TrEMBL record:
Matching InterPro entries: Methyltransf_12, SAM-dependent_MTases_sf
Residues that span the membrane, as ranges: none
EC number: 2.1.1.222, 2.1.1.64
Pfam families the UniProt entry points to: Methyltransf_12
Protein name according to UniProt: Class I SAM-dependent methyltransferase
Length: 262
């Protein structure tokens, strides 16, 4: 099984469903909404006039949000359908942006050897990549001297817990995969996908940090957060757009963020 072809078909099928979903609220974005989370804005800092490339950008709402905050943005994704939508949204909103269709491992060549002040990778990206060492080397080649990687990602600890309550360890933290999944739906709703197979890879926190440092980047911080952005487990409680375990319950890390400089 070619994981890349399988996953590309799966994500191309997700695009029209995601575009129409309340989860992404594309109409709200077109009306001026910025979808970057507040902790990301705080940790990245002022992006005015800085060049930023967003790897695995889907249809670009995060990318274009960074543009609204002042960055000069480029988005890259392997899904032709997603990039087509990203370009359309950018044009409709009058936001200057470049969007390129390519696999993340081919980013250096696909972007013509350009380098950037910031390489940004958002929630839910790394699980689609089999080789983090190669990914981190790609990131390092995309950075200008003094630039930095900023990664916000779902915490791998949450992936070993039972899918219903999130209170019992049921999965192997060190089982990297590949894991082949058959899901009729995507995470935004009940519409049935045309291509339902996906291939994913689990990466522990140590693997992420080791790959980044081996690529010659200096880790500035690794922060763990006790909240996420969807109801990952049934017991999570929503408050102001984020989800946590209820007050009094033991807290666990649900998201982490990492910044590493060239």
């Amino acid at each position: 099984m070619d994981y890349l072809d399988v996953n590309r078909a799966n994500w191309n099928a997700r695009v029209p469903i995601h575009i129409a979903s309340d989860f992404y609220d594309v109409e709200g974005f077109k009306a001026g909404k910025i979808v970057i989370r507040s902790f990301e804005r705080d940790e990245v800092g002022d992006v005015s006039g800085r060049s930023l490339v967003h790897l695995q950008c889907h249809f670009g709402l995060d990318t274009l949000s960074w543009a609204r905050l002042g960055a000069e943005v480029t988005g890259l994704d392997f899904s032709e359908a997603a990039i087509e939508q990203a370009r359309g949204i950018a044009a409709e909103c009058g936001i200057p942006a470049r969007f390129v269709t390519a696999d993340v491992y081919d980013a250096v060549e696909a972007l013509g050897g350009a380098t950037y002040d910031i390489v940004y990778t958002g929630i839910g990206a790394l699980v689609w990549l089999p080789d983090l060492t190669r990914w981190a080397r790609t990131v390092a080649r995309l950075l200008k001297p003094g630039g930095f990687l900023y990664l916000a990602e779902l915490h791998p600890y949450a992936d070993i817990l039972d899918d219903e309550t999130g209170t019992t360890v049921t999965h192997d933290y060190f089982e990297k995969g590949p894991h082949v999944w058959e899901y009729p739906h995507t995470y935004t709703g009940s519409e049935v996908l045309e291509h339902q197979t996906s291939v994913q890879f689990q990466h522990g926190l140590g693997e992420v940090v080791s790959a980044v440092t081996a690529a010659g980047l200096r880790v500035e911080f690794l922060h763990e957060h006790d909240h996420t952005f969807f109801r990952r487990f049934a017991g999570l409680v929503a408050s102001e757009g984020i989800y946590r375990f209820p007050e009094g319950a033991p807290r666990i890390p649900l998201v982490y963020s990492l910044r590493a400089s060239a």
